[in-house]
Write a structure and sequence with these properties.
This protein is an all-alpha fold. The chain is about 70% helix and about 0% strand. The protein has 11 helices and no strands. The longest helix is centred in the middle third of the chain and has 29 residues, at about 150-180. The protein is globular and about 55 Å long. The termini are far apart.
Length: about 270
């Protein structure tokens, strides 16, 4: 009998939508606990698969999509320095685009089987640049733009430094585990749980009011947009100035709490 010819997978551009979803959005991605932004899981993942379908025939690499994601974030920060309500709205829309592309770069990588450590590295750079720029941009915005740099910009710049420290605290877990030759960090909630019972209860209660996400780019832009709308209604920058003042102590508290939660958990041992 003649040998059965091997099954050749369809080219990415010829995949049906069901086949594309199976490759790009497997249950291991859609069901993960920590890596998915709520806006992604709520509605942007439903849109990203269509963006992925449009990108695949172009031959753009996953890292190329990551660079587009990074540029969207940098663009959001650059627009935000313009002292106008419209700038805050455009910033928020660009960050919606950033999450959409952030979903799509992984989907393109899974379909084309072009995953790499470089892609993870570039993704982290994109988020560091974006989340570091936004508090600084708010300070410049409140100061009146790039031609009026002053005290509000200084507050925003110091807040940006603390935000970057906070992000580094999380990523340094993986650096420390790598030096200790420990396996990849588990997403099991018990590993991240604080081992001091009183502090663990406090941490669980704070999840009802997720202010710890205040400096994640999407949430930060949403908060800033709400405050900008209020200022547009009442006139002046009173609420945005109050937000600029509050940003720094809030960032310090969140960074200190994050560091304590890491050191009091099993993330550096298991």
């Amino acid at each position: 009998m003649p040998a059965t010819p091997p099954v050749v997978p369809a080219a990415p551009a010829k995949l049906t939508m069901a086949e594309l979803r199976a490759l790009a959005q497997p249950p291991s991605v859609m069901g993960r606990r920590n890596s998915e932004h709520w806006a992604g899981s709520l509605y942007l993942r439903r849109m990203s698969i269509y963006v992925t379908r449009m990108l695949l025939p172009t031959g753009v690499s996953p890292n190329g999509v990551t660079w587009m994601m990074t540029l969207a974030g940098i663009g959001a920060g650059a627009v935000l320095v313009w002292p106008s309500w419209w700038a805050v709205l455009i910033c928020h829309l660009l960050l919606q685009l950033q999450i959409l592309l952030d979903c799509s770069d992984g989907e393109v990588a899974r379909v084309t089987k072009k995953t790499s450590p470089a892609g993870v590295y570039l993704d982290r750079i994109g988020h560091y640049l974006t989340e570091g720029l936004l508090p600084l941009a708010v300070g410049v915005h409140v100061d009146g733009g790039l031609t009026s740099i002053g005290g509000w910009t200084t507050l925003g710049a110091v807040t940006s430094v603390v935000v970057l420290w906070n992000k580094a605290f999380g990523d340094l877990i993986h650096v420390a585990r790598g030096y200790a030759r420990l396996p990849l960090l588990s997403e099991d909630a018990s590993v991240a749980a604080v081992r001091v019972s009183g502090l663990a209860r406090v941490r669980r209660s704070l999840k009802v009011f997720p202010f710890f996400r205040a400096f994640v780019a999407f949430e930060f832009s949403l908060i800033t947009l709400v405050f900008a709308v209020v200022d547009e209604i009442v006139g002046g920058h009173h609420v945005l100035r109050a937000w600029t003042i509050v940003m720094l102590p809030l960032a310090v508290v969140l960074a200190a709490g994050h560091l304590a939660a890491i050191l009091l958990s099993r993330r550096l041992t298991d």
